[in-house]
Amino acid sequence: xxxxxxxxxxxxxxxxxxxxxxxxxxxxxxxxxxxxxxxxxxxxxxxxxxxxxxxxxxxxxxxxxxxxxxxxxxxxxxxxxxxxxxxxxxxxxxxxxxxxxxxxxxxxxxxxxxxxxxxxxxxxxxxxxxxxxxxxxxxxxxxxxxxxxxxxxxxxxxxxxxxxxxxxxxxxxxxxxxxxxxxxxxxxxxxxxxxxxxxxxxxxxxxxxxxxx
Length: 213
Fold this sequence. Notes:
single chain, Porin, 2 helices
């Protein structure tokens, strides 16, 4: 009970210092339910499954007042049928407003990972063909213990706003774990493309992350 991350999207729930890229996917930043005030129950079922459900204020971080008397209900189910495979599904419902949904898969074996998420938002009263919808696929390979290569492809569409709001992105880069285990250098090249008009923008990012705890 208190203020914390709502149980929605693996990439959002993972600390920014622990994900493999310098930025979260656009669909995660936009549609994943964020930190909020509320009450949540988290129940593991051995090592193969976990379930979480919570009721939240729905107003966001550091806002104790509820302006419309509606609440946000968020649930998440995670299954691990194999040691290397994790599946999950998320559902977040804002009363009288919208429903957000997501599904994900994570495969990890040795030094290789493959992860994908799809997240959508249905606004009540809107045709489902006009749902906001996005996805990303991320692949990583640890070449040596201190060097990880990373690639990511993503797409995000908001048809109710217009075709100009479709965005795709390609990320390529690497992570270097420096001696001591608390410092990481992340280098990414990102190409973001919007449609109608078609505009491409290239960005280079370099980050040094230090974990003190």
